[in-house]
Write a structure and sequence with these properties.
Number of helices: 5
């Protein structure tokens, strides 16, 4: 009986060691990108993207975490604008716009409460009376578990981007155009 416990114990240790090694070796870098065509010019889209006070209308954050509290700096538009958030499910973080160009879009960094940093952008590409708007985010997931959750994380973030872009399209296309 003692031998059976030893074999079971060693098997569990070996399994744990294999999982740890797999977790360390699996890729942790993620890249999520989603696009949508909007029947508007970049100049008509940009005010919705560069103004962080407009993000709650389309960006979809609060629908994933009803406890989410978001505050925006006094300067809510363009380079240097930032928003802080805190939520039970979402944790905490800060998003800061690092580049803003009405013809090309914005770039931003995100610093999460756990110390992780990501780089993102919302870019525009105009063609034939429409604009292709692309939302991108990339970063690195935590060392051990990141490799195991990467696919699910990319799917979840991708779904969030798709819903946000659909809401942006609706907001932009419903506004009066000059």
């Amino acid at each position: 009986m003692k031998r059976v416990f030893q074999i079971v114990g060693l098997s569990l240790l070996a399994t744990a060691a294999v999982l740890i090694v797999m977790g360390v070796l699996m890729p942790k870098h993620y890249h999520v990108e989603r696009s949508i065509l909007i029947a508007a010019s970049p100049a008509q889209i940009h005010p919705w993207v560069e103004d962080l006070q407009k993000w709650p209308i389309w960006a979809n954050w609060d629908r994933q975490d009803p406890s989410l509290a978001v505050t925006t700096t006094d300067n809510a538009k363009g380079v240097g604008a930032s928003q802080h958030w805190q939520g039970e499910r979402s944790g905490s973080g800060i998003l800061t716009i690092t580049k803003s160009d009405p013809a090309q879009g914005i770039r931003f960094t995100t610093k999460l409460g756990n110390g992780a940093e990501t780089a993102g952008s919302i870019s525009y590409s105009e063609a034939a009376g429409t604009t292709n708007v692309t939302w991108t985010d990339e970063g690195r997931l935590p060392s051990f578990m990141g490799g195991f959750i990467r696919g699910d994380f990319e799917d979840l973030l991708g779904h969030h981007f798709e819903e946000g872009l659909r809401r942006l399209k609706k907001a932009v296309e419903q506004q009066p155009h000059n």
